[in-house]
Design brief:
By secondary structure, the protein is α/β, with parallel strands linked by helices. The protein contains eleven helices and 18 strands. The protein has two domains: 3-162 and 329-361, Quinone Oxidoreductase, Chain A, domain 1 (Alpha-Beta Complex); 168-305, NAD(P)-binding Rossmann-like Domain (Rossmann fold, 3-Layer(aba) Sandwich), CATH 3.40.50.720. Helix 6 (215-224) links the parallel strand 12 and strand 13. It binds nicotinamide-adenine-dinucleotide and zinc ion (2 copies).
């Protein structure tokens, strides 16, 4: 079987800058698809990987927020064929695990990934970020990870649905269950948080409070639908959120940073019987301490959102439709187009708060 040699962005060791390296990508075996990546957004989770905050399975092939064209498929693949325009999903429910069998495929515990490994030139296996690895000209996925969508959408916009936009929109619409007339606070307004703002607006929230430490992010949040903004370096956010909601707090408080301090803000900024949604990814050292009486006495629910509780085959085509109808401005998430050699610089710009999304265009 043929092996394809392409360039990809790898993270070799904890904390070390990422590097471009030759990657060997096998042709698809049974059930797999080889995808020519056209665009891949830089998500904060890629940076978490390179900081060793997700796991220690270095070397990683980074990139997981991508769209492209199916190049080849293996035996038995029926959902896509060569030439199809697809968004890559890091969830492809198995239909068979204990969660799928309970009718909750968005929690699938045995999501499909490619069986074969992509490797470095010396044969050492790569761990593709979130089972994708798309800062690479070609990537190998399970065919069910390739979700066919309308090719009229630009690959830059479509790719963002593959992670951050879906995670944020879904945190509001699916996990948080935001509905008409609700009040919502989003703490941390990067790509994920601003997608939660957009999701809250789409779902009919009437008050949407965006909180960040950076005014640029708050300006973007207004464009996505925030009715109020709070710079939490200048204003105590819990008090300010209460003041904007008749002293009560919000129905749904979404944490999109991944930090104990901002989680506490979300916890105290919600109304009684409200919902906290944690979509930010904490690192393994982080702890929280909350008065148990407050957990009980405030009622409601404390939830985590993995990938916005999405079902890619249901939700990706729908979001592309909303985009094409002008109701979801995916282009506004794209701050810059970069080359495949610029991911490390994009991490620096992300850390300095200068971008919503840098998108690698291949
Ligand atoms: N749960 C999921 O399925 C999922 C999916 C994708 C990303 N994520 C996670 O979501 C988080 C956000 O990702 P992103 O790509 O939007 O990152 P990002 O770096 O673009 O955005 C983070 C935002 O948080 C803000 N921020 C930082 N500290 C803050 C504080 N103390 N108070 C308020 N705001 C603060 C930053 O200014 C920035 O705007 C990351 O932890 C990422 O790993 C989770
Ligand atoms: Zn399953
Ligand atoms: Zn991501």
């Amino acid at each position: 079987m043929a092996v394809n040699e392409v360039q990809g962005v790898i993270s070799r060791a904890k904390g070390a800058p990422v590097e471009l390296a030759p990657i060997l990508v096998p042709d698809p075996g049974a059930g797999e698809a080889l995808v020519r990546v056209q665009a891949c957004g830089v998500c904060h989770t890629d940076l978490h990987y390179r900081e060793g905050a997700i796991n220690d399975e270095f070397p990683f092939l980074l990139g997981h927020e991508a769209a492209g064209i199916v190049e080849k498929v293996g035996d038995g693949v029926t959902n896509v064929q060569p030439g199809d325009f697809v968004i890559l999903a890091w969830r492809a429910p198995c239909g068979n695990c204990r969660s799928c069998r309970r009718g909750r495929p968005w929690y699938c515990f045995a999501s499909h990934n490619a069986q074969q490994k992509m490797t470095l030139a010396d044969g050492s296996a790569l761990s593709p970020a979130l089972g994708i690895g798309a800062f690479c000209e070609l990537t190998l996925v399970h065919a069910l990870q390739a979700v066919k969508v309308d090719p009229a959408a630009s690959p830059l916009a479509a790719g963002l649905i593959g992670c951050g936009v879906m995670a944020g929109l879904g945190a509001a619409m699916n996990t948080g269950g935001v509905g008409r007339g609700d009040s919502v606070a989003v703490i941390g307004c990067g790509g994920v948080g601003n997608a939660a703002v957009a999701g809250a607006r789409l779902a009919g929230a009437h008050t949407i409070i965006a909180v960040d430490i950076d005014d640029r992010k708050l300006e973007w949040a207004k464009e996505f639908g925030a009715t109020h903004t709070i710079n939490s370096t200048q204003t105590e956010p819990v008090e300010a959120i209460r003041a904007l909601t008749g002293g009560n707090g919000v129905n749904v408080a979404i944490e999109a940073v991944g930090n104990p301090a901002t989680y506490e803000q979300a916890f105290y900024a919600r109304d009684h019987a409200g919902t906290v949604v944690l979509v930010g990814v904490p690192d393994p050292t982080m702890q929280i301490e909350l008065p148990l009486l407050e957990v009980f006495g405030r009622g409601g629910s404390l939830k985590s959102s993995w990938y916005g509780d999405c079902l890619p085959t249901r939700d990706f085509p729908m979001l592309i439709d909303l985009y094409r109808q002008g109701r979801l401005d995916l282009d506004a998430f794209v701050s810059e187009r970069i080359g495949i050699g610029d991911v490390e610089t994009a991490f620096e710009r992300m850390s300095r708060g200068e971008v919503l999304r840098s998108v690698v265009v291949l």
